[in-house]
Amino acid sequence: MKVQVFRGLNILLWSLAALTPSWAQDRSSVITSEKHAFRVVTLLPGLENPWSVAFLPDGRMLVTERAGRLRLVGSDFRLAPQPIEGLPEILERGQGGLFDVVLHPQYAQNGWIYWAYNAPGPGGWGTALARGKLQGQRMTEVQVLFSMQPKTRSSQHFGGRIVFDKAGTLYLTLGDRGDKDRAQKLDDHAGSVIRLHDDGRVPADNPFTKRSGALPEKWTLGNRNMQGAALHPQTGELWTHEHGPQGGDEVNVMRSGLNYGWPVITYGVNYGLGTRIGEGQSKPGMVQPLHVWVPSIAPSGMAFVSGSQFPQWQGDLLVGALRGQMLVRLVLDGEKVLREERLLQGRVGRIRDVRMGPDGLVYLLSDGPDGALMRLEPVKP
Question: Is the pTM value of this prediction over 0.90?
Answer without folding.
Answer: yes
